[in-house]
Write a structure and sequence with these properties.
Two copies of one chain form a homodimer. Chain A has six helices and six strands; from the N terminus they run E-H-H-H-E-H-E-E-H-E-E-H. By secondary structure, chain A is an alpha/beta fold. In chain A, strands 3-2-1-4-5-6 form a six-stranded parallel sheet. In chain A, helix 4 links the parallel strand 2 and strand 3. In chain A, helix 3 runs parallel beside helix 6. At the A-B interface, helix 4 and strand 3 of A face helix 4 and strand 3 of B. Strand 3 of chain A pairs antiparallel with strand 3 of chain B, so a sheet runs across the interface.
Chain lengths: 174, 174
Amino acid sequence: MQRILIDMDDVLADASQGILDIYNSHYGTAYVKSDFENTNLWDGEVKPKYENVRFRLFESGFFRNLKPKEGGIETVKKLQEKYEIFIVSAAMEFPNSLKEKHEWLAEHMPFIHWKNMVLCGDKSVVAGDYMIDDHEKNLVSFKGTSLLFDAIHNQSTEGFERYKTWNQIAEKLL
Amino acid sequence: MQRILIDMDDVLADASQGILDIYNSHYGTAYVKSDFENTNLWDGEVKPKYENVRFRLFESGFFRNLKPKEGGIETVKKLQEKYEIFIVSAAMEFPNSLKEKHEWLAEHMPFIHWKNMVLCGDKSVVAGDYMIDDHEKNLVSFKGTSLLFDAIHNQSTEGFERYKTWNQIAEKLL
């Protein structure tokens, strides 16, 4: 059975929206994701202001309360019939997120056994046949097939097949 | 640079002693590790009584307060000069342990960057050149060189090079 490694933030869980929510509530702005199309989310004028609120990603509750990305949970459930699925999240920078990510998966994806969860730092240590991720740094050292999940912050990333939605992932792998 | 994957419980941290402490304090016994030489720690008459206290492994503080195994920290620090080191612990069964293991490493092994920590369930997902572990189930699927770290509970495990101390590991790898 082939193995797929699937990222959490901005692949299964809507971390960009969570960050936007923090930013908007702090500065009284009303940004939506489409305001950042074809840009890097936190470049330009919002970058220094974002750095000022980034500490809130380290606080309790941020990762626990992220919304699932559309179609992700259902698609992974179907993929599980054909593939060995591991959820692999680079969580070590955020110690509070470790238990929260475990809880998030238990709530939203109870069909993922704890044996199939990986919380790590550098993803070069995990191996599989496919990796679905939004960060070039994770995909570039992967020896299998890399699938770039489209995100506001990776619009300039090139060299990987880009998938805009979970439906496109399903078409590719199912 | 070759990569070594190093387990935590009963390799770097003395989990067997932690369990013995729980058992002894609950039942008023005074077992020491050498009482279990050439046996499986929790077989025989103590097994059903151990099952009664096992829930305490899930409580806060158990993993955080384990003592380091003799020679482990110093040896890993030396290994780090020659190898890429990842600490890989099968922690997902114990959600409370996730942050505690992060904290344990930060306290006892501050030279291990968070990028080099992995908390997982099934270790078949990690890849490297060497794996140091006390459990056959982790070593058996590993594609590199497997080093069995001697523990009370693995006395009947065969088919791997067995290392009784961190000094022996140092002799092998340094």
